[in-house]
């Protein structure tokens, strides 16, 4: 009897203990599963905070990221660099580093999708603002991805060109393949239009309707939808007038101020990491002198206020590195878009609007008859592949001068024919080949989704 | 004899319980990852005579310009 009791207890204990295999599991503490609009707003505010403090690398990147892009381009001369410290000699030496923004951008997209797909409150003011902001940020992220990880947009071949994996809901198990470039562009446009439908006006959320429209102008410009680029750029340009010459001199080197021509910028608040990024950017940009070709471009126009603001007599950059989208870029978008539409008078009108604000003495407006000859530089063809006309050359040169060291030149080279050029360092010659303009999809992702994610050409394992 | 049977019983049930508890028998320490997340970087080429001349001209122009 005693033995039977003992055996029964023994068996009972064995069964109980075996079943209990999660007995050490602890419920997570301090983690909130978002339900209300306030909960969801903490997700978006994390990214807004990163932008304001100059810590964001991918949405409105911090100044250090802008410097990195300038190191790939041709306005600064790597051959004449006094050191390379932590900077990349050219795009080819940053192949592995260039995989990183892909992951971060998709991380932002994941957060936006969480808000777009899971927030029940779609009617309150906060809910609507959040949705508008999430749609806008998501499309900006996809636009940034398209610029970096896809080949330049050509309407005729977009359907056969590799686009991006399009993730439009929060699904950890999803394994989307790369869409084509046309589908990618349509997806981005739809996102921007959804953002506009919420008419965000709250400046605390940064991505107001005006910001979305300015990005739409950039997006249509990149995808060669010229008339839409003009429509949106004009609308925002009216709201954000360009700076006059004296205002330009005062404002262009503002470290954190958002002047009246700036639609959006990063690093508007002090932060230790932000200041470190900012300081590194200013130091790095001074390690390379300005390229002779750009010096000659400035020399062709006397009394251009940008000349002394941009670099000194030793050809070292004077201009403070910041990341922003400002109305002058929109003016140039309009001018170039009109030129592509063969509306030369309108193109000249917008080109002259900007020039008149930068040339302080003896300003002469351009007409078709007095346009200078095509300026000899690395870019030989325009965005459509056609040889540069005098008008197009003048517009591209104006853009090069106005947006100097603002992270634009690398994408200008990519958009206009991806010219190959070389630099030397450590006794070797490095060529920026065509394929380097399109960054590699992270190798880890390619391995994770075999057969689904196709790598951009040129990259060797 | 009975005592031996009991001992055998305990050994059998004890060991089987231990085996049942092992609900993830294939759980092993992670295999050492022999893959790399990096791509081969272009190594560049050695400058030829013409390249060297161009580079020298670039330096000369630069030094002249900044020392004026």
Question: What is the typical, i.e. mean, pLDDT of chain B?
Answer: 81
Rg of chain A, Å, rounded: 26 Å
The general outline of chain B is rod-shaped
Low-confidence stretches of chain B: none
Q: In percent terms, what proportion of residues of chain A is strand?
A: 5-15%
- The tally of beta strands of chain A, per DSSP, is 6
The biggest beta sheet of chain B reads: none
Notes on the structure:
By secondary structure, chain A is mainly alpha-helical. In chain A, 48% of the residues lie in helices and 5% in strands. Chain A has 17 helices and six strands. In chain A, the strands form three sheets. Chain A has a two-stranded antiparallel ribbon. In chain A, 47% of the residues are buried. The mean pLDDT of chain B is 81. Chain B is built from two helices and one strand. Chain B has 68 residues and is mainly alpha-helical. The termini of chain B are far apart. Chain A binds chain B through residues 3, 7, 10-11, 14, 17-18, 21, 77, 79-80, 92-93, 95-96, 99, 289, 292, 295, 313-315, 424-425, 427-431, 433, 440, 442-444, 447, 459-461, and chain B through 6, 9-10, 13, 17, 20-21, 23, 35-47, 51, 55, 58-59, 61-62, 65-66. Strand 6 of chain A pairs antiparallel with strand 1 of chain B.
List the helices and strands and how they pair.
The complex is a heterodimer of chains A (about 450) and B (about 70).
Chain A: H1 2-19, H2 37-52, H3 63-72, H4 100-118, H5 125-149, E1 162-165, E2 178-180, H6 181-197, H7 209-222, H8 226-239, H9 245-251, E3 262-265, H10 272-285, H11 292-299, H12 305-310, E4 324-326, H13 327-340, H14 344-355, H15 390-402, H16 409-415, E5 421-425, E6 428-432, H17 443-448
Antiparallel strand pairs in A: 1-2, 3-4, 5-6
Chain B: H1 2-21, E1 45-46, H2 49-66
């Amino acid at each position: 009897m005693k033995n039977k009791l003992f055996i029964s207890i023994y068996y009972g204990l064995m069964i109980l203990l075996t079943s209990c295999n999660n007995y050490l599991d602890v419920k997570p503490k301090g983690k909130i599963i978002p339900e209300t609009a306030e909960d969801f707003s903490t997700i978006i505010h994390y990214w807004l905070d990163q932008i304001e403090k100059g810590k964001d690398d991918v949405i409105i990147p911090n100044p250090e990221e802008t410097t990195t892009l300038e190191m790939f381009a041709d306005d600064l001369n790597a051959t004449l660099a006094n050191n390379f410290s932590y900077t990349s000699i050219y795009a080819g030496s940053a192949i592995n580093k260039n995989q990183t923004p892909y992951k971060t951008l998709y991380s932002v997209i994941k957060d936006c999708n969480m808000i777009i797909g899971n927030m029940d409150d779609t009617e309150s003011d906060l809910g609507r603002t959040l949705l508008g902001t999430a749609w806008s940020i998501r499309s900006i992220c996809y636009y940034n991805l398209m610029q970096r990880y896809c080949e330049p947009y050509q309407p005729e071949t977009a359907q056969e060109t590799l686009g991006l994996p399009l993730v439009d809901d929060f699904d950890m198990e999803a394994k989307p393949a790369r869409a084509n470039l046309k589908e990618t562009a349509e997806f981005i446009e739809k996102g921007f239009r959804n953002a506009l439908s919420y008419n965000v006006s709250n400046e605390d959320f940064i991505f107001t309707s005006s910001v979305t429209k300015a990005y739409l102008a950039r997006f249509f410009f990149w995808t060669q939808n010229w008339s839409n680029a003009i429509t949106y750029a004009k609308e925002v340009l009216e709201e954000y007038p360009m700076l006059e010459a004296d205002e330009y001199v005062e404002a262009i080197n503002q470290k954190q101020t958002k002047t009246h021509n700036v639609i959006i910028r990063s690093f508007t608040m002090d932060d230790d990491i932000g200041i470190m990024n900012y300081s590194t950017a200013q130091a790095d940009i001074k390690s390379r002198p300005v390229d002779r070709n750009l010096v000659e471009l400035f020399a062709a126009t006397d009394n251009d206020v940008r000349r002394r603001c941009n670099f000194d007599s030793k050809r070292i950059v004077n201009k403070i590195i910041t990341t922003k989208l400002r109305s002058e870029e929109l003016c140039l978008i309009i001018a170039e878009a009109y030129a592509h539409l063969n509306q030369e008078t309108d193109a000249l009108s917008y080109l002259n609007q900007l020039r008149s604000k930068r040339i302080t003495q003896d300003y002469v407006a351009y007409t078709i008859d007095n346009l200078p000859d095509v300026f000899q530089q690395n870019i030989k063809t325009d965005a459509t592949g056609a040889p540069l006309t005098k008008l197009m050359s003048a517009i591209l040169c104006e853009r090069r001068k106005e947006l100097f060291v603002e992270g634009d030149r690398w994408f200008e080279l990519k958009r206009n024919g991806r010219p190959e050029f070389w630099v030397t360092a450590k006794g070797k010659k490095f060529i920026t080949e065509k394929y380097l303009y399109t960054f590699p999809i992270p190798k880890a992702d390619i391995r994770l989704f075999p057969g689904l994610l196709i790598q951009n050409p040129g990259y060797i394992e | 004899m009975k005592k031996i049977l009991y001992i055998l019983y305990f050994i059998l049930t004890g060991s089987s319980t231990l085996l049942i508890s092992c609900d993830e028998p294939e759980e092993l320490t992670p295999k050492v990852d022999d893959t790399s997340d990096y791509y081969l970087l272009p190594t560049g080429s050695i400058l030829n005579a013409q390249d060297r001349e161009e580079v020298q001209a670039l330096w000369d122009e630069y030094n002249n310009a900044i020392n004026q």
